[in-house]
Amino acid sequence: MIDISDGIKLFNNDDFFDAHDYFENLWIEAGQKDRLFFQGMVQISVASYHLVHNNLNGAQNQYRKCSDKLKNYLPDYYGVNVKKLLDDADKVKRNIADHFVDNKNLIDKSLIPKIDFKK
Length: 119
Description:
The protein is mostly helical. The protein has one domain: Hyaluronidase domain-like. The protein is about 60% helix and about 5% strand. It has helices spanning about 5-10, 15-30, 30-50, 55-70, 80-95; strands at about 75, 80, 100, 105. A two-stranded antiparallel ribbon has the order 1-2. The chain starts with a helix and ends in a 12-residue tail after the last strand.
C-alpha cells in the first residue's frame, strides 16, 4: 500500500495546491483499482483551493466531482475516513454561500474539510 501521509499533511495544513500535485502524481501512476480514489483526492484538493480563493462555482463543481469518485471507496480507503470526508464536503456544497463573512469575502476555514487519516 502506498504511503499517502505526506499528501494528507499538505491538505490538512491548507496547502491545497501542493496536495493537488502530490495526489495527481499518484493518480498518474495508479493502477485501475486506485485511479478514481486518487483522482477524487486531486479534485477535493482543487475544490478546497478554489474555495480559499473565492471561486465558489469552481469549488462547488470540484466538490461534486470528488464526491462522485470517492463514494466508490466508502467507508475508508488508504487510511482515509472517506465517509467523514464526503459528509464534510456535502456540508460545504450545501452551505457554500455561508463561507462569506462580514461582506469581506473572507472564507470561514473551519468549514473546509480536513482529512481524518489513520496510517
